[in-house]
Design goal:
Length: about 220
């Protein structure tokens, strides 16, 4: 399947994407994961992105489009892809539209995960992430903690709170989301490809997507 997952930080895009990969071998493409891995590796991309990310700001569109142009042409995307955290701005959505036409790829749907703000805030402050860039498993210290505190069930690496999940950075990220990313819901609604889901749980979202795509 080929989907865009839209939603505020903490809406559950990553968890849903991971569940969907198991259905048909589509790959999860998270620009946040790609950027965090680059920061960890200390490469040029990481050095360019780090300050924006730490502050809860968006990384410039040109950097993101360079990443995505290359990523969408990788062999593993042939089985399908789930875009998680991209596009994040109207210019990214417009550039993606052109890129998909060039690559002769069509999307199955754009899914908006709608979650009330109080739930988002609670989820983000209690979310923990595996620091291994090849794993990136997501936990929640309240609802789904790792079996052994601070250790990933899947790969044994450390489970940590992300640098941009301090209260200050979270509040900035939500403001940035409302200003720059929320308008994408309207953009894709006008394109006629939008599925809105009341994302009370990741299971509910996956079921709505399966229903829409009849898979
Ligand atoms: P995420 O893991 O999706 O919440 O992304 C973490 C951070 O990476 C964001 O707060 C941004 O600084 C940056 N980022 C991820 N995806 C994008 C994107 N598509 N455009 C701009 N910045 C991004």
């Amino acid at each position: 399947m080929r989907l865009i997952l839209l939603g505020a930080p903490g809406a559950g895009k990553g968890t849903v994407a991971k569940m969907l990969t198991a259905i048909d071998g589509s790959v999860q493409i998270s620009t946040g994961d790609i950027l965090r891995a680059a920061v960890k590796a200390g490469n040029e991309l990481g050095q360019q992105a780090e300050a924006f990310m730490k502050a809860g700001d968006l990384v410039p569109d040109t950097l993101i489009m360079d990443i995505m142009k290359e990523r969408l042409q990788a062999d593993d995307c042939k089985a399908g892809f789930l875009l998680d955290g991209f596009p994040r701005t109207i210019p990214q959505a417009q550039a993606l539209k052109t890129l998909l036409v060039d690559l002769e790829i069509s999307l199955d749907a754009v899914v908006s995960l709608d979650v009330p703000k109080e739930v988002i805030l609670d989820r983000l402050t209690t979310r923990r992430t595996c620091e291994n860039p090849d794993c990136n498993a997501i936990y929640n210290i309240k609802s789904s903690p790792p079996k052994q505190e601070g250790i990933c069930d899947k790969c044994g690496s450390k489970v940590v709170q992300r640098d941009d999940e301090t209260e200050e950075a979270i509040s900035k990220r939500l403001d940035v989301y409302n200003a720059k990313t929320a308008p994408l819901v309207e953009f894709y609604d006008q394109e006629g490809s939008l599925l809105r889901v009341n994302a009370t749980s990741s299971e509910v979202v996956v079921a709505a997507i399966r229903n829409k795509l009849e898979i």
